[in-house]
Amino acid sequence: MSRDDFLDLLRRLDGSRTIEDLERETGLDGEAVREVVEPGVVQGLIDEGAAVPAFSPGTAALARLEGLLNHLLEDLVLTGPFWRRILERPQRLHPNVFFGFGLENWFLLSRESELGSAVRALAENADLRGALDDFDRRGRRHDDVAVHAFRSLGATRGDLLRARPLPTTAALIKMLSWWARTDPLFFVATIGVIEERLEAEDEGPAARCPFLAACDRVGLTPGFVEPMRAHARAGAARRHGALSRALFARMPGIDEGTEQSWQAKAHLFMETYAGFCDGVLDHYSDPHRPLLRLCG
Q: Residues 6 or more apart from 32 whose CB is under 8 A from it?
């Protein structure tokens, strides 16, 4: 192959041609074309210009997942019956709906360390375990703040521990527990989106939390609201979303198949979370039902 033929071949490697195209356009023998192209591919000097990269940086994959989760949160959760009533007509709700939402969230919160332990149990995720260890040290006994809110309603920690979550809450807990064990990255991404969107910010008015804003509008008892406000501020200070991004930044790459599986799981997660919220409305709207569903 002459120098001019070689340079002409290189100029045609723009990702739009096959080996057969190059052979036809240059007049070179196919074997001669492969002698140039194939070693270049092996050495990483040539790739297929139109091909999608096999792996994406962890932060890029997280950004796409967070975008989908936020879209589904708006579409399936915040437009659902529970949040429409909370945001638009909270005065028409029975107080037990507010107390019940706090209670069912406590069931989730009280199992946070259990879920985190499941993530850390995966030996291949050493960085993930280390970050979660630090996260849990800062948030240990954080659920005590929420317990204070129910003390004003006459419920002790013992009462809460004997209470049963709603079936819709239990379904969400079991789903998150499974993902914590089998897909820890997806698990921390879901927690990050929910916590960032629905908790108060560490600095600034706690009314940024839509649930607390509704509590203020209806004039709910301060004995319940103020501990919940402190809980929301502390939760925001822990910055679940920032933890998710820090963890994904440590991942060397996320393959396309994994991202596709996350998209399917994202829809299932938000459908279950919507059921969790609407289950609170369905059950606690009936004033004849007890606030605590005690076991035994």
A: 1
Q: Quick check: 166 pLDDT over 60?
A: yes
Decide: 269 and 190 in contact? Cβ < 8 Å.
yes
**Burial label, 152 (beta-carbon count in 10 A; 0-12, 13-18, 19+):** middle
CB 283 within 8 A of CB 95: no
Which residue is it, tokens 């009936």? 286
pTM of the predicted model over 0.85: no
55: three-class secondary structure by DSSP:
strand
What's the rounded Cα separation, in Å, for the pair 47 and 49? 6
The DSSP secondary-structure symbol of 203 reads S
Phi, psi of 292 (to 5 degrees): -105, 130
Handedness of CA 9, 10, 12, 17 (dihedral sign): positive
C-alpha–C-alpha distance, residues 160 and 151, integer Å: 10
Query: Encoding tokens for residue 104?
Result: 């069912």
* Residue 229 near residue 206 (C-beta atoms within 8 A): yes
Q: What does residue 56 show for φ and ψ, rounded to 5 degrees?
A: -115, 150
Give the tens place of pLDDT for each residue, 63-103: 899 899 999 999 999 999 999 999 999 999 999 999 999 99
Which of 204, 195, 176, 187 shows the shortest CA–CA distance to 240? 195
Strands 55-56 and 254-255: antiparallel
* Selection from 211, 176, 208 nearest residue 191 by Cα: 176
Q: Which two tokens stand for residue 162?
A: 């004997």
pLDDT tens digits, residue range 12-64? 887 778 888 889 999 998 888 888 888 877 777 776 655 555 788 888 888 89
Both tokens of residue 187? 């698990």
